[in-house]
Write a structure and sequence with these properties.
four-stranded mixed beta sheet, seven-stranded mixed beta sheet, alpha/beta
C-alpha cells in the first residue's frame, strides 16, 4: 500500500512517517511504501491522477480537502464505522468534512498558532508577556530599539514575518491576527455557499495593525515582504528578530538551535475587536479513490487515529513530529511531551479557525496574500481600499467555484 506524505525526503518528519508505517505493518501485516515529497506535491499528485494511479493513502493538509474532493480523488469516510472515530475531537472532524457536509478523511493532526518569543530579550527590556495588541507593539518596539542582544548595534527587529506571496504566506501569517480580532476572509452562507468578508472592519483592522508594524513602527525584520517560512525560521534563529507567530512544528528546532532557556511560547493576544482565535491547521489521512485496497486503507486510517498511532506521530519532544497536537482525546499530551510550552498551542487550539472547505482554497489564499503583501510593501497603500478590491476578487472566485 502506497502512502504519500507532504514532507521533505530524508527529513526527521519523513523518518517519523516511516516509523508509523512500520508499526502499522507489524500490527496489520499490510506491507507499505512511504513516499515523502515536499516540492510540487500537488503537481505530482495531479500527474498520478491523470495516469489513474493515485497513491492509496495521502497524508496532507486539511486545507487541501476541498480541492482533492472536487476532483473526485477522495473516498467518503464512514465516521461511525471508523474504529476509534468517537475518540477524536469534533473540531478535527470538522476539518475532515466537505462543504456538502460529508466526511472525506480521517483527522490525524491538529495545530494552532502562538508567539515564540525571545524570553531573554523580553527580560532584558523589562516587559511583561503581552496581553493586548498595544502590549505586543510595545514589546516589538523595545526589541527593535533597545539592543536586546547587547551587541551595541541596531540590528534586531521585533517581529519576524514570512510576508512574501509564495504559497500565500502573507495571508497565512496575517490570518491568525485576523481571527484573533474576530475577522475572516469568508463567511458561510448556507450549505456549500460562502460570502466574501475580506473588507469587514475587523479584518481591515488586523491588516492595518500589521501595516503599521512595517511602516510606522518599523518593527519587522528587513526583507520580510519577500520571505517565505524557510528564510524566516533562519532569521529568528540568527537573532535578527524576537517575536515569531508560528505553529508548534518549529519548537523543537528552536530549542536546539537557540537554547531552551532563551525562548518562550505565549498566546496570541485578543484583538481590540474580537478574539480569541488563531489559524487552525493540520493534516488528514485521505483514503484515495481508484484503489483495490479499501480494507487496508481503512485499517491504516484506524491505526493512524489510534492512541498508538498518534503517539508515534507525535515523536515526543524530538524534531520530526507529524502529529503536532493529537486529535485523539484519549492521548495525554503532557504525558508524551515533557516541554510545557506545547500546552500553549494546545490551549489555543480550542479557538482555532480552519480554512473553509471551499472547492479550492489555494486561489483564495493566494489572492489574499497578494493584496496583503501589497499594503505591507507599499506604505502609501490604503488598507481599506485594497481590501475592498480583494473582496470583489474573492466574490468573483467564489462564483467561479460555484460556491457563492
Amino acid at each position: 500500500m502506497e502512502i504519500w506524505i507532504r514532507q521533505p525526503p530524508d527529513s526527521d518528519s519523513a523518518k517519523t512517517a516511516q516509523k508509523l508505517a512500520d508499526a502499522f505493518t507489524k500490527a496489520s501485516g499490510v506491507q507499505t511504501k512511504v513516499v515523502a515529497i515536499f516540492d510540487d506535491f500537488e503537481t505530482k499528485l495531479n500527474q498520478q491522477a491523470a495516469q489513474k494511479q493515485l497513491p492509496d493513502i495521502v497524508i496532507n493538509d486539511t486545507a487541501q480537502l476541498g480541492a482533492m474532493q472536487s476532483q473526485g480523488w477522495l473516498q467518503e469516510v464512514d465516521k461511525a464505522g471508523l474504529a476509534g472515530g468517537d475518540q477524536l475531537s469534533e473540531l478535527a472532524w470538522k476539518a475532515a468534512t466537505g462543504s456538502d457536509g460529508k466526511v472525506y478523511a480521517a483527522p490525524f493532526s491538529g495545530q494552532s498558532f502562538a508567539l515564540i518569543v525571545r524570553k531573554d530579550w523580553r527580560e532584558k527590556v523589562k516587559l511583561d508577556p503581552p496581553e493586548t495588541w498595544e502590549d505586543l507593539t510595545a514589546l516589538a518596539k523595545a526589541f527593535t530599539e533597545q539592543d536586546p542582544d547587547g551587541n551595541g548595534s541596531a540590528d534586531t527587529a521585533g517581529f519576524v514575518i514570512p510576508a512574501g506571496t509564495k504559497r500565500g504566506y502573507a495571508s497565512w501569517y496575517a490570518s491568525s491576527l485576523i481571527y484573533a480580532n474576530g475577522g475572516d476572509f469568508l463567511k458561510a452562507n448556507g450549505p456549500g455557499k460562502y460570502v466574501a468578508t475580506a473588507n469587514d472592519p475587523k479584518t481591515v483592522e488586523a491588516v492595518k495593525y500589521l501595516q503599521d508594524q512595517f511602516c510606522t513602527n518599523k518593527t519587522v525584520n528587513p526583507g520580510a515582504v519577500s520571505n517565505d517560512t524557510t528564510v524566516t525560521h533562519e532569521v529568528f534563529e540568527k537573532g535578527q528578530g524576537g517575536i515569531y507567530l508560528v505553529g508548534p512544528y518549529v519548537l523543537a528546532r528552536f530549542v536546539d538551535s537557540i537554547g531552551t532557556d532563551k525562548i518562550e511560547v505565549l498566546p496570541v493576544p485578543k484583538g481590540p475587536s474580537g478574539g480569541p482565535g488563531t489559524l487552525g491547521e493540520g493534516e488528514n489521512v485521505y483514503l484515495m479513490a481508484g484503489t483495490s485496497m479499501q480494507d487496508a486503507q481503512k485499517k491504516f486510517a484506524e491505526f493512524a487515529i489510534s492512541p498508538e498511532g498518534q503517539r508515534i506521530g507525535m515523536n515526543k519532544d524530538a524534531n520530526g513530529a507529524i502529529v503536532r497536537l493529537p486529535v485523539n482525546t484519549q492521548v495525554d499530551m503532557a504525558a508524551e511531551r515533557q516541554d510545557p510550552r506545547w500546552k500553549v498551542f494546545q490551549e489555543s487550539y480550542a479557538n482555532a479557525v480552519y480554512a473553509p472547505p471551499v472547492p479550492n482554497w489555494a486561489p483564495i489564499r493566494q489572492d489574499s496574500a497578494d493584496s496583503i503583501n501589497a499594503v505591507w510593501a507599499d506604505c502609501g497603500a490604503d488598507v481599506k481600499t485594497v481590501m475592498d478590491e480583494l473582496n470583489a476578487k474573492l466574490t468573483q472566485e467564489l462564483q467561479s467555484q460555484n460556491a457563492s
